[in-house]
Amino acid sequence: MLHVNFLAEFLPEIKKNSGLKIYLETNGSLFKKLQDLVEYIDIISMDIKLASSTGTETPWFEHGKFAQTAIANKKEIFLKAVVTNKVQPSELKEIGEFAKLHKVPLILQPASQRELSLSPEDLLRIQEVLLKELKEVRIIPQTHKYLNLM
C-alpha cells in the first residue's frame, strides 16, 4: 500500500493481460489508499499486529475501515495474527470479535522464535476458544520464516 501509485499503473495491466487473481498481503492500516486499488485486487490477507507481538497498540479503527472497504467491494478477505506466549485473553477476545463482526476467517500464526512460541496444546486451546464464536479459525505457521524469506 506504500506504493499505491505504482500499483495503480501496474495492476490493471496484470489483470488485463494475464487474467490472474491479485493477492494483497497487507497490515490493513492504510484504508484510504485501498480505495485507489480495490478494483484490481481479488484476495486480501490482512495481518493484524497484536500488541503482545509488536509492543505497540493494535490500530483497530484503521483495521475496521480497511475491512469495511474490502467487504463493501466484495473482496475475499481473511485475517492473520501472529500469536506468542505473551498473547493476552483480551487480545484474543478483540480479534475474535473483529473477525465475527466482519464475518471473515482468522488464521493464527504461532511465533517462530522459540522464546516466544506457544506449545501446540496452547495453540489448540486458543483455537478451540475462538471457534466457539467463529466459523473458521486455522493455525498455519509463518511459512516465510521457514523458507528464510524474512
| Mean model confidence by pLDDT | 91
Strand percentage lies at: 15-25%
| CATH class category | Alpha Beta
Quaternary state, please? single chain
So what's the overall shape? elongated
The helix-strand sequence is HEHEHHEHEHEH
Low-confidence stretches: none
By secondary-structure content and strand pairing, the structural class works out as: alpha/beta
Describe the overall structure.
Helix 1 packs parallel to helix 2 and helix 2 packs parallel to helix 4. The chain starts with a helix and ends with a helix. It has a 5-stranded parallel beta sheet, with helices on one face. The chain has 7 helices and 5 strands, in the order H-E-H-E-H-H-E-H-E-H-E-H. It is elongated. It is 46% helix and 17% strand. By secondary structure, the chain is α/β, with parallel strands linked by helices. The chain has a single domain, classed as Aldolase class I (TIM Barrel), CATH 3.20.20. The mean pLDDT is 91.
